[in-house]
Amino acid sequence: MADAAKTKFTPRVFSGIQPTNHLQLGNYLGAVKRFVQMQDSGIETIYCIVDQHAITVWQDPSDLRHATRELAAGYIAAGLDPKRSILFNQSQVPAHAQLGWIFNCVARMGWMNRMTQWKDKAGKDSEKASLGLFAYPSLMAADILLYHATHVPVGEDQKQHVELTRDIAMKFNHDYKVDFFPITEPVIEGAATRVMSLRDGSKKMSKSDPSDQSRINLTDDADTIAQKFRKARTDAEPLPGTLAGLKDRPEARNLVNIYAALSDQTAEKVVAEFAGQGFGTFKPALADLAVAKLSPIATEMKRLMADPAEIDRILGDGAERANAIAEPILAKTFDIVGMIRSQR
Ligand code: TYM
């Protein structure tokens, strides 16, 4: 834990997921499953559906509404308890955008230009990307720092953004000569911090990959899950007895990691168990395990999605509780910056 967090800031966990397309296995293992585990750590946990981040690239309004509710259902079906954790969608707490603006004035263009996600998403035609996509990491810093969050569980691909959040906090504290924002720690742990595509072991599994065969969606049925694992790209060798033997075998390594994360074991244990076995044995075992773990979540998601009004009520309740934490921190930030807020 960071020194600043130890001495001054009460430990608090914050993380978020974009409501774009369906949740995929990488989101589940790299994020949601760990969010649920952290709920039992005794630390306050705040989880957000970042709809304002989602619209940095075009979203059809009815798709966005559907994906927001589906993501809320996914969180809850995976074990998140909206009474113990705060669960809400970002746009219902205006302080995110308000603090985001202040951070737009703290962060430097050069910092944003170096973000790999910006480079990947904007591609060669960055002139046509939205301004929001460029400023994306500064809104993400606002999400985190608005709650003085000390710990942010994420997959490996978000590490650079959390590091930028630290830079923004340090620059703000330095420029205004305060010790107001914590220097947040990314929490990137476990066997599945970077789940790779089932079609290409050098690409991460992603909601936006054009090939649906590249990922397992949380909404996939048992047959689809089994078929996707059966067709997953691998090599012809049997599994080795130690992890070192997987060094140059990214696809095999990925499947072992997925098995480990789904079964709450280390990857070492999994290779020891399957040593010498071919994929003809390992893939069906992995598919059975995935179906056993994921299908109850899919069933529960469906049940929850049948009552959208209840999901909206849960998000509204979460937003109210989030707002109660965020408002005083935003008010203090305005004061530090020198902005007058009249009593009304
Ligand atoms: P997003 O919506 O792309 O992904 C949500 C979470 O899932 C993790 N993840 C993965 N983990 C392992 N393997 C994969 N293949 C994989 N794909 C995705 C991501 O690392 C992430 O933890 N910028 C964030 C959303 C965000 C946020 C925040 C996160 C906005 N504000 C504040 C933390 C704190 C994003 O696009 O995540």
Structure description:
Helix 11 crosses helix 13. The protein has a three-stranded parallel sheet with strand order 1-2-3. Strands 4-5 form a two-stranded parallel sheet. The radius of gyration is 21 Å and the shape is globular. The chain has about 350 residues and is mainly α. The protein folds into two domains: about 5-190 and about 305-335, 3-Layer(aba) Sandwich (Rossmann fold), CATH 3.40.50; about 210-305, Tyrosyl-Transfer RNA Synthetase. It is built from 14 helices and five strands. It starts with a helix and ends in a 7-residue tail after the last helix. Tryptophanyl-5'AMP binds near residues 50 and 140.
Order of helices and strands: HEHEHHEHHHHEHEHHHHH
The CATH superfamily name of the largest domain is: HUPs
Q: Say how many strands there are.
A: 5
Helical content band? 40-55%
List cofactors, ions and other ligands: tryptophanyl-5'AMP
Major sheet: size, sense and barrel closure? 3 strands, parallel
Structural category is mainly alpha
CATH hierarchy: architecture of the largest domain: 3-Layer(aba) Sandwich
Distance between the termini: 40 Å
Q: Count the helices. How many?
A: 14
Spans where pLDDT lies below 50 across 5 or more residues: 1-5
Cα-based radius of gyration, to the nearest Å: 21 Å
